[in-house]
Design goal:
The complex is a heterodimer of chains A (215) and B (864). With 215 residues, chain A is an alpha+beta fold. Chain A is 52% helix and 13% strand. The chains are: A alpha+beta (215), B mainly alpha (864).
């Protein structure tokens, strides 16, 4: 469930200026450009947000020193604190193995939830973006909480903008990813300016397919 | 898992508020500038001083603009874009009105004209020309009519259509003409001289329009909807500027007579002085000017919000102060001018008095003249009738003349008096102006509060700016240091890359030399070069690991280099054993005590080495059978003496021969002894007829025979059930087969050469060596540094010794394992080494010891 948290604003002025310039250059409306760029940003954010590695999940779960089964805590054989030759009764050992297997399975299923948050933002905006299958399927036992990652189009006076709110920030890479994605798009635009992309509609179409600037 | 705060991103709006605020400021500044300009132009040269002051005001306005530029140069483009949009809308609206085409389509046409290299400005003229020629062609004659005919287009077809539609029809018509010359002529017939220029566009009109439409995007639709509004707004902007001037002109028209009089009076005032005063007033708004400087400081130190606030407050203050000054000084100037005129034209003043005196003198002169004329008339009357009248008249004329002369004398000094009056009134003007100025209430009161607010904001901005600048200096220092550090790292990286490159080149060269040596069949050279190659690779790996250890373990360069060297040496030594599973030949002694150990190791640990030994010793191919045989061997080891005693055998071989029903030398000797024959064949032949004697019976019993028949069977290769049972029971085993197996195993391993192989699995050892770095990397994570230090100390000292030890040990093991087995399983055991079974036991023990040693010597101890 989303927790009450202070809002963290990503400074987007440089990006916005770039988009306004692009609007002027391409002749496309600012709204269209922002929508198209939002799609690119979210796709990049999915790629840049980190996901847990399967081998690390397994190693972490299996490396747990002590485990609790039926209300009792057992020191795991082979762990640093266990004596040499320490063994558990077969029934307990079997139960713990089952517990480990279940824990690994749950964690694997939840792998990619941070990436999925951008997918959910895109969905709430009606934008379609691509993501790996494991990201699309990822969920916890309680579901995938789409309300934690939303996006809305807003108009304030004459200005238009898309507001994205993502509460799934338990991984620092979520914040870094959106920043990097916006910076990336700004730099992409600047690079295209240098390369003269905006002189030809066909080039614009190739670089900015969302703008429908087909030749 | 730490819960972070939510992220909110506004894509496309972050600067909107600022930009809109800025637009307002820009517009205000524009208005302020245009108002002051209009005022200056409106009042013209009459108020030169004041205009000078206004110029100062304009400078101040420009200073405001400069402040804006510093902070928001980018946003100015938005304002410019706004203006451009209005201009574009206005232009398209006008063009739409003149051509009848919609603004959106005209925009698309303009873009298409631009794309074709014709130029957007040609759209209007081209359409106009086309429409004129359509009209001209209506009567069916002339150049235009011929051109339409050549295209196969009728005027009726074009009638009532919008220009874009007409262009499409004409485009189609032109495309139907194959001859390029005729095509150009037709185009010029419709579009005039520029027709040829339009040809590229007309021949591909659909395509060009499509591309232009895509490029223009939604702008066309916006222009369709809003061009009229854009035009109107743009026109109004211009009109507003003109209205200001009209307003001034209107005022001047009505006020001109008064102003004329006033200006002539004011021409005597020291206007330059007033101008200076007014300029002082502007410059006196130093609080506002200070505020602008504070705004610039704030922008430069990132205090955008504070900067905007103080900028706006300063703008308000400056505007209010300027307005106050202009208002007060105008009012005071008008009041003073009024007072001046009042004094000059005062009835008691010299000017008016002189005028009256002049009229009076004129009257006196006129009266005198009339009186003298009348007196002359009366003097001419007869009888002296008019004499007295003439005298009276002359007297009156003389008096009038005297008065006139007197007035005339007075008038001679009047100019001085008038001048004096003007001088006095003029001199009083500045004083009067000052008094009036002081009395005029300001338009905008209570500016002190605003000034105070600006002062406070200035202080706050100054404080923050100082802090920010200090922080920047600090950051700059840090950045400078970081820069130096980065340069150092980059230099090191470049050096490393150079080394790496050199090493790579050296490796390639070595590889080439090795191949050449192989090709020439020089084995010795190949060996030497491969050794060199291995050494070089080792050096490279050591260098790489040294860097890694420095980072991971936090040790110094020397220590890291030492660890890396030891690690690589140990790894190479381990790798030199060969594949991950090395087959080793073990020389060992398997004795009776070892069997017991083997049994224990097989049952408890499934030790592969023990299994290998057990299989070899028992001759079985599976561990279960080997286990059973070993048990029997162990049993026979305990009870073999009983069997030997029962059978009268001297060795285990003889026991086995009994079981196998093979005649033993003792049995042959017995047969010959009791029959008295010299050879065994004769003895066996005589046994059939032999009558038992007591001596013979005793001899038979001594070798475990119950009767003579049993001896005969034994000699013939037959063993009876009873005798078999007796042997088996005496050995303590289950049956004859197991007894034979166990005995065979014991006998086969007694004094014979045996190759016992065992898998020395080096994978684990190598893996553990490879894990060295990863394992040590986890040590420094402990928050308490004391255990870390201890661990590192232990690691470094232990690793150094044990790793070296492992290296040497592996070499030794390798050398040992390469030696052939030297056990001789056939023949007699070495003197003093006990019986054969004890030798076998020794063999097993040796295998055990060697394997244990092998296990210990592998570099495991170096791995904690």
């Amino acid at each position: 469930m989303p927790k009450a948290s202070a809002s963290f604003n990503v400074v987007a002025s440089d990006f916005t200026r770039a988009m306004r310039e692009m609007s002027k250059i391409t002749g496309a409306s600012f709204q269209d450009i922002i929508r198209a760029e939002t799609q690119s940003i979210l796709e990049a954010a999915v790629k840049k947000t980190q996901a847990a590695q399967v081998k690390l999940i397994t190693a972490r779960v299996q490396g747990t020193v002590a485990r609790t089964l039926n209300g009792k805590t057992y020191l795991m054989p082979g762990s640093a604190h266990a004596s040499r030759g320490w063994k558990l009764p077969d029934a307990i050992w079997a139960g713990i193995q089952k517990q480990i297997k279940s824990s690994i399975a749950k964690r694997k299923e939840a792998r990619g939830l941070a990436k999925k948050s951008w997918l959910q933002v895109a969905k709430s905006l009606g934008i379609s973006i691509s993501a790996p299958a494991y990201v699309e399927k990822s969920k916890t036992t309680g579901g995938d909480y789409p309300q934690n990652a939303t996006g809305t189009e807003k108009t304030d006076g004459s200005s238009f903008f898309i507001e994205i709110t993502n509460s799934r920030t338990y991984s620092g890479s979520v914040r870094d990813a959106i920043r990097a994605a916006m910076r990336g798009r700004t730099n992409f635009f600047k690079k295209n300016l240098r390369l003269g992309v905006f002189k030809k509609t066909s080039d614009i179409a190739a670089k900015y397919p969302g703008l429908k600037a087909t030749a | 898992m730490a819960e972070g705060s939510a992220i909110t991103v506004k894509i496309g709006a972050e600067t909107d508020g600022i930009e809109q605020g800025l637009k307002g400021i820009q517009n205000s500044l524009k208005n302020l500038e245009s108002n002051t300009q209009a005022s200056a132009e409106g009042f013209g040269n009459s108020f030169t001083g004041m205009a000078g002051a206004v110029a100062v005001g304009q400078l101040a306005v420009k200073a405001f603009s400069a402040a804006v530029d510093v902070a928001f140069s980018a946003a100015r483009n938005v304002v410019q874009g706004f203006g451009d949009a209005l201009d574009l809308g206005g232009r398209l609206s006008d063009l739409s009105a003149s051509t009848g085409e919609t603004a959106g389509k005209l925009l698309v046409l303009e873009r298409a004209f631009d794309n074709s290299g014709i130029g957007a400005e040609k759209v209007g003229s081209s359409i106009a020309k086309m429409q004129k020629n359509i009209e001209d062609a209506r009567d069916g004659s002339g150049t235009a009519a011929n051109a339409f005919a050549a295209m196969g287009v009728s005027v009726d077809e074009l009638e009532g259509k919008l220009p874009t539609e007409q262009l499409k029809i004409l485009s189609s018509g032109i495309n139907s003409i194959d001859d390029p010359t005729q095509r150009a002529a037709a185009a010029m017939g419709v579009f005039g001289k520029s027709g040829a220029e339009l040809l590229p566009l007309l021949t591909n009109l659909e395509g060009e329009l499509g591309e232009a439409r895509d490029t223009v995007g939604s702008m066309a639709e916006i222009m369709d909807r809003r061009n009229a509004t854009f035009d109107a707004v743009g026109d109004r902007f211009k009109t507003i500027g003109e209205k200001v001037r009209d307003f001034a002109a209107g005022i001047l028209d009505k006020a001109l007579p008064a102003i004329d009089a006033i200006t002539s009076a004011l021409s005597r005032i020291d206007a330059a002085k007033i101008g200076q005063n007014l300029a002082d007033a502007f410059l006196g708004g130093e609080k506002a000017m200070g505020g602008f400087q504070a705004a610039v400081d704030a922008f430069q130190t990132g205090q955008i919000s504070a900067g905007l606030q103080v900028f706006w407050d300063s703008t308000k203050l400056q505007a209010a102060q300027t307005a106050n000054e202009i208002y007060k000084r105008l009012i005071a100037a008008f009041q003073s001018a009024g007072q001046f005129l009042g004094e000059i034209f005062s009835p008691s003043g010299a000017l008016i008095g002189t005028a009256i005196s002049a009229f009076e003198m004129f009257g006196k002169r006129v009266a005198s003249s009339i009186q003298r004329d009348l007196a002359t008339t009366f003097e001419a009357l007869p009888y002296g009738l008019g004499e007295s009248m003439a005298l009276a008249l002359n007297d009156m004329a003389n008096q009038s003349n005297t008065a006139a002369n007197k007035i005339e004398d007075d008038l001679k000094g009047a100019s001085g008096r008038i001048g004096e009056q003007f001088t006095q009134a003029g001199a009083a003007l500045p004083k009067s102006f000052e008094e009036n100025y002081a009395k005029v209430p300001p338009l905008f009161a209570d500016l002190e509060g605003l000034q105070k607010s600006i002062e406070e904001q200035e202080k706050a901005i100054k404080k923050t700016a100082e802090e920010t600048n200090a922080e920047r200096e600090k950051t700059n220092e840090t950045l400078e240091k970081e820069k130096e550090a980065r340069a150092e790292i980059a230099a090191k990286a470049a050096e490393d890359a150079e080394k790496e490159k050199a090493n790579a080149v050296a490796l390639v060269e070595l590889e080439t030399a090795i191949n050449a040596a192989k090709a020439s069949g020089n084995e010795q050279l190949v060996k030497t070069l491969e050794s060199e190659k291995q050494q070089l690779e080792g050096q490279q790996e050591i260098a790489k690991l040294t860097e890694e250890y420095k980072t991971k373990l936090g040790v110094n360069a020397d220590e890291a280099a030492r660890l890396a060297t030891n690690f690589v040496n140990a790894k190479n030594a381990a790798a030199s054993i060969g594949d991950t599973n090395a087959v080793v030949t073990i020389t060992t002694t398997v004795d009776d005590t070892r069997w017991k150990d083997l049994l224990a190791e097989i049952s408890a640990n499934s030790n592969p080495k023990a299994i290998a030994v057990a299989l070899e010793v028992t001759g079985k191919d599976n561990v279960q059978d080997a286990f059973a045989t070993l048990q029997n061997m162990e049993q026979i080891n305990k009870s073999h003496q009983v069997a030997m005693d029962v059978l009268g055998a001297k060795s285990l071989e003889e026991v086995k021969m009994n079981l196998d029903a093979v005649a033993t030398p003792a049995q042959a000797q017995l047969a010959m002894q009791i029959t008295g024959e010299d050879d065994l064949k004769s003895a066996i032949g005589n046994l059939d007829s032999f009558k038992g004697t007591k001596t013979a019976k005793a001899l038979l019993e001594k070798q475990g025979f119950e009767n003579i028949d049993q001896l005969k069977d034994a000699l013939k290769g037959i063993i009876g059930e009873k005798r078999t049972k007796m042997i088996v029971e005496s050995l303590g085993v289950k049956n004859a087969e197991t007894a034979k197996d166990a005995l065979t195993a014991i006998l086969n391993n007694d004094g014979k050469k045996a190759t016992i192989t065992a898998d020395a699995d080096t994978t684990t050892a190598e893996q553990k060596i490879a894990d060295l770095s990863t394992k040590t990397a986890t040590v420094p994570l402990d928050g308490d540094t004391a255990p870390l230090k201890t661990s590192l100390d232990q690691f470094t000292s232990t690793a150094q010794k044990l790793t070296l030890d492992a290296s040497d040990a592996i070499k030794t093991i390798r050398a040992e394992l390469q030696k052939p087995i030297k056990l001789a399983l056939s023949g007699e055991p070495p003197e003093g080494s006990g019986n054969k079974s004890s030798v076998l036991s020794g063999l097993v023990e040796d295998i055990k010891n060697l394997l244990t040693e092998l296990n210990q010597k592998l570099p495991q101890p170096a791995l904690f």
